[in-house]
Design brief:
By secondary structure, the protein is an alpha/beta fold. About 35% of the residues lie in helices and about 15% in strands. It folds into 2 domains: about 180 residues, D-Maltodextrin-Binding Protein, domain 2; about 180 residues, D-Maltodextrin-Binding Protein, domain 2 (3-Layer(aba) Sandwich). Strands 1, 2, 3, 4, 5 and 12 form a 6-stranded mixed beta sheet that branches. Helix 8 packs across helix 14.
């Protein structure tokens, strides 16, 4: 083969290869395009119902909350023509995203609606921005939702991940005022909870779920993002600037793990990683350990819904009112899966979950439970007992959390390896 013919052949091969990869990207980013010819956001529930009747598929709801099962039962009653055309599929929060991706990448789209919590921004940055799923923003509903909560999805309700304390041990209420109280006993001269004599001065016995998981690592991400607020809270409480002791323990590697220097949120995080703690796989086990408190003053980190255990006689309650804030307002979102053959029916279901145009024309109260707040300004949940303001929650910055999350999980594992036994 001549050099000229070889050059042409290689050029054609390169063009063909680039086309294959380009098509692969196109498939990944556009398996199911949203029908933009219909202004679904302005349609009423009645209009969606009429359109849904003519759709032939089954509305598959992938949900990580069992409350979706109750919502679907009510949906079937409200819309009898669709009672045999909707199905609830229980999914695990850790695998539902990859399940949606696999379906879309293989062209075997099964899901129509995805209902999931997004604590780390993963769902938005890896599914929404890559066109696997879309955000539905019905005008009649979003007009009643804080705009700050709408950026990353259509929130169904909000919750948070609190610390728990033992109410029998502390009958007068929450025993701590700020995040710095949690790391009480830290010795800045030794950079640990052991003083110069080798005595462990850690005050609180700590129980948690997996800190490297999205729900809890993301909370520390937000605290690092708000490092200046943590520094102000420390100086306000102790009358002096926070002392940074973690700098010598940084092993920053660009693109692998990086955390900023002289950041009070990172200092808090480092001190926390040096505590003796017990990580449990189940939130019920965490609150049970707090209830027992056999090793003295105890704090446990778990989801807000675990306060239900107090109704069964456990001596547990949320730690609320912390400075600079207790946690961030975590939301459960509803998304549309691109490529669905039930575009109207999927939206009707989501609207029904949201309570419809007036907050009452649906099953919004199905999600009213301990640890959950309504995100609609015209509907109040009754079972929580506290307002968002009383608990003192902030709004998450998922753009920054998403980028910081891998670094926090990596440093958690590294810094935990330094803990003195």
């Amino acid at each position: 083969m001549s050099r000229k013919v070889l050059t042409i052949a290689l050029a054609l091969l390169l063009v063909f290869t680039m086309a294959v990869f380009a098509n692969g990207d196109e498939e990944k980013k556009g398996k199911g395009k949203v029908d933009s010819s219909v202004d679904y956001d302005s349609l009423s529930m009645e209009e969606l119902y009429e359109m849904a009747k003519s759709e032939t598929g089954t509305i598959k709801v992938y949900a990580t909350t069992t409350d979706a099962s109750s919502a679907i039962r009510r949906f079937k009653t409200a819309y009898p023509d669709l009672k045999d055309k909707i199905e609830y599929i229980s999914c695990d929060n850790n695998t539902v995203a990859s399940k949606i991706e696999m379906e879309c990448d293989t062209g075997n789209i099964n899901a129509d609606v995805m209902q999931v919590k997004d604590n780390s921004g993963e769902i938005y940055h890896e599914l929404v921005l890559y066109d696997y799923i879309s955000i539905y923003r019905p005008e009649s509903v979003t007009s009643h939702i804080n705009e700050g909560l709408l950026e990353f999805g259509l929130p169904l309700y909000s919750t948070f991940n609190p610390w728990y304390y033992n109410t029998k041990m502390y009958p007068d209420g929450v025993p701590i005022d700020s995040w710095w109280d949690i790391v009480e006993g830290y010795d800045t001269s030794t950079g640990s909870f052991y003083d110069a004599n080798g005595v462990n001065r850690q005050f609180w016995t700590i129980y948690t779920k997996d800190i490297s998981g999205p729900s809890y690592a993301s909370l520390f991400c937000q605290l690092i993002i708000d490092g200046d607020e943590l520094a102000e809270a420390y100086e306000k409480q102790f009358g002096k600037p926070v002392e940074y002791t973690y700098t010598g323990k940084l092993k920053n590697t660009p693109g692998v793990m990086e955390l900023p220097e002289n950041n009070a949120g990172v200092e808090l995080f480092y001190r926390f990683t040096q505590m003796k703690m017990t990580e449990l796989s189940d939130g019920d086990g965490v609150v049970d350990a707090v209830d027992q408190s056999i090793n003295g003053p105890t704090l446990g980190l778990a989801s807000a819904s675990k306060l239900d255990n107090a109704d069964m006689g456990m001596n547990v309650a949320w730690v609320i009112g912390l400075e600079p804030y207790t946690a961030f307002q975590s939301c459960s979102y509803s998304y549309l899966v691109n490529g669905s053959d039930n575009p109207a029916g999927s939206r009707l279901y989501i609207m029904f979950c949201m309570g419809g145009e007036d907050g009452q024309s649906g099953c919004y109260t199905a999600f009213d439970k301990r640890g959950s707040w309504s995100i609609r300004d015209d509907v109040t949940y009754e079972k929580n007992g506290f307002t968002v303001e009383e608990v003192n929650l902030t709004e998450p910055d998922f753009d920054k959390i998403y980028n910081m999350y891998p670094n926090v999980t990596a440093y958690f594992k590294y810094w935990r390896s330094l803990v003195k036994n």
